[in-house]
Amino acid sequence: MTQIIDRPAAQGDSPDPWDPILAEAASPAPLAPVAPATGLTMVAAINRALHDAMAADDRVLVFGEDVATLGGVFRVTEGLSETFGEDRCFDTPLAESAIIGVAVGLAIRGFTPVPEIQFDGFSYPAFDQIVSHLAKYRMRTHGDINLGVTVRIPSFGGIGAVEHHSESTESYWLHTAGLKVVVPSTPSDAYWLLRHSISSPDPVIFLEPKRRYWARELVDTSSPAPPIGRAMVRRNGTDVTVITYGGLVTTALAAADLAAEQGWSLEVVDLRSLNPLDFDTVAASVQRTGRAVVMHEGPRTLGFGAELAARISEECFYDLEAPVLRATGFDTPYPPARLEKVWLPGVDRLLDCVERAVGQP
């Protein structure tokens, strides 16, 4: 694939080929201001973010399985190949390890790759390339070379998909030093977190909650949202802090409405960025409420909620009025579509935790 792409100016023409590589890799793609947009779905917001990033910097490349001709399974990349040409948005073979391997090589040569892994469960063949190379290259080169690669992965459940299409992979990436991990919950966050990710000199795992792909809201593409590493309080409350991310933010907000009918006031914290983690916002919320429930789709054992519960207990112990509880998926393989609603944590499972936290009978 690399042979059909023109190199950026000055790449590979120096007597010392490492000089231009290092110089180009140190310059992230700019965030060029564009006209505001309104009424975008998350799919459209991600597509707009990719378009705007490619328009702002000709080093940005988009590639993956069916992303060019088809426009992606969810049509997220629709129109990019027609607009920017086959050299900048192109299809790859069905080989996830090769997709990330190509991205590593392109990043070393000064490009800004944005590869797509078609579904979360398909990321496992690329695990070695991501963990052993993408995440480690800065350390391996003593900080001389950054790999500014943003790996887009449609993730999580809630759409009734078949096996291997509804995985929660965040814990694998969070355990891997050297990777940023972000999960948008709204179209606006999807646009700006992706723009920030593409501009970052660090490798980013960008997990897109498929169940929120068709959610629509007003998106202002001219006024940047908070950057990677910032959480947001989506709803203020006084009794229990609910900490979650991605598609479950909407579930938490729905639970907060029902909880209010019972006289319980829930504060909902949307993490947005899992690494780096904005623990200051989490801690400040727990200090206000004295109680915390962590919610995520993945299995309970060693899920991200375990890390959050441990850290809250360690650093906010004297502020807690009850143990930190978790509303999660089960420690089983992801079920068939007909059992998905039973397996996924929902409003009922979250409110059960809230009831325990506030000490109701």
TrEMBL record:
Domain Transketolase-like pyrimidine-binding intervals: 40-215
Species name: Mycolicibacterium porcinum
InterPro entries tied to this protein: THDP-binding (IPR029061), Transketo_C/PFOR_II (IPR009014), Transketolase-like_Pyr-bd (IPR005475), Transketolase_C (IPR033248)
Subunit structure: Heteromer of E1 alpha (BkdA) and beta (BkdB) subunits. Part of the BCKADH complex, consisting of multiple copies of BkdA/BkdB (E1), BkdC (E2) and Lpd (E3).
Function: Component of the branched-chain alpha-ketoacid dehydrogenase (BCKADH) complex, that catalyzes the overall conversion of branched-chain alpha-ketoacids to acyl-CoA and CO(2).
GO molecular function term, any single one: branched-chain 2-oxo acid dehydrogenase activity
SMART domains, per the entry: Transket_pyr
Keywords: Oxidoreductase
EC number: 1.2.4.4
Gene Ontology annotations of biological process type: branched-chain amino acid catabolic process; response to nutrient
CDD domains according to UniProt: TPP_PYR_E1-PDHc-beta_like
Cofactors: thiamine diphosphate
Repressor as UniProt keyword: no
Recorded catalytic activity of this chain's protein: N(6)-[(R)-lipoyl]-L-lysyl-[protein] + 3-methyl-2-oxobutanoate + H(+) = N(6)-[(R)-S(8)-2-methylpropanoyldihydrolipoyl]-L-lysyl-[protein] + CO2
Protein name, entry field: 3-methyl-2-oxobutanoate dehydrogenase subunit beta
